[in-house]
User: What shape does this take?
Amino acid sequence: MTRRFESVLKTLEERVRVESTATGGAAARAESLPHAPKVGWAKRLLGRFHVTGVFWYRFHAWGMRVLPRWAVGVVVTIFTTFFFVLIFNIRRAVASNLEVVLGPCSWLEGQWRIYRTFWSFAWCLSERYETLAGKGGFEIDIDLARWRDLCSPGTGFIMITAHLGNFEVGSMQPAFEEAREIHVVREREADPEAQAFIEEILVRAGGSRYMTHFEDDDVLQGIALLNALRSGGIVGVQGDRPRSGGRIVSAQMFQRPFPLPDGPASLARVAEVPLVPIFVLRVGRRHYRIEIREPIRVARSGRRDRDVAEAMQRVAGEIEWAISQAPFQWFCFREVWPPDAQTR
Assistant: This one.
C-alpha cells in the first residue's frame, strides 16, 4: 500500500475506534428503507410490474430514448395521470408531507398538490433519462463566480443536496464541463432488479470522471471517498435520507423531528472539507436553476457527535429553505410525519 492509502486507512480505523468507544455501540440507526414508498399486496401481486419494479424503469428509459422531443410532453401527461389515479400510498404520503410544508388545505387543493408533485417528478425523471441517452444538454442558470470559487483546482468539497428537483443535472456539471472528478453516492433502489438496471445505465453514462457509489457498509467505499476529497475531488450526496441501518442524527425541519444521516458531516469532518448545500430546481423544459448555498464547516472539537449534529442541523435548515422554494419538487414518497407523531 502507498503511504497515502495507509494514512487514510489509519484515520478511518481511528474514527471507528473513537465512535465505538463514545457510543458504546448504541448509536441511533435508521430503519430498513426509511424513505422508500410503502408496499404491500400490490407489490406481491404485480412483482416487477409494480411502480417500484424494474419494468417501469426500463420502459421509461426506453421511451425517452426513442420518443421524438415533441411527444415527450404528451407521454408525461398520460403517465402522470395514470399513476396519480392508481397509486394510493404515495398520494397519501405526498399530501401529508406537503401539509406540513404548505399548511392545511381543502381536499381538492390537496389533490392538485399531489398531481403537481407527480408531474414535476415525471419531468425530472424523463429529462434524466434523456440525458443518459445522450439526447442533448440543459439550459442552466447558475452563479458562475460562486461556482468557480468552489471549483478552484485542488479544492475538494462535499456537494450535499436533497431528493429535490434533478440533482444529477448539477452533479454531472463539473465532471463533464470542467473535467473534475466527481464521486456521487446514491441510495439503493428497493427492488434488486431495478437496482441492477440503475447501476448499469449510470456506469455506462458516467465515464472516467463521474463515478457512482451505492451506499453500503464497505469501509473501502469510505476510503475511496476520503481519498478523492483529499485529492481535490468532489463528493455528491443526498443528505436528506439515512440509508437502511445507517447512523442518524436528530434534526428539525419545519418544526418537526427529521432524522438525517450522520455520514456526510462525519466524512467532511475527517477530510477537513466543507459541506456545500446545492439544489437543482427545474424551471422549464430542460431548464434548471442551480442554487449554491453557504458552505458549512464541521467543527473539530473534542465532542465529535455534537459537531456532526450541529452541522447536520444546518444542513436541515438549508433543505427546509430549498423545499420552501419548490415544494412540488420535493420527491419524498413516504409519510415523514404521520399525524399521530406530529408535534410542534
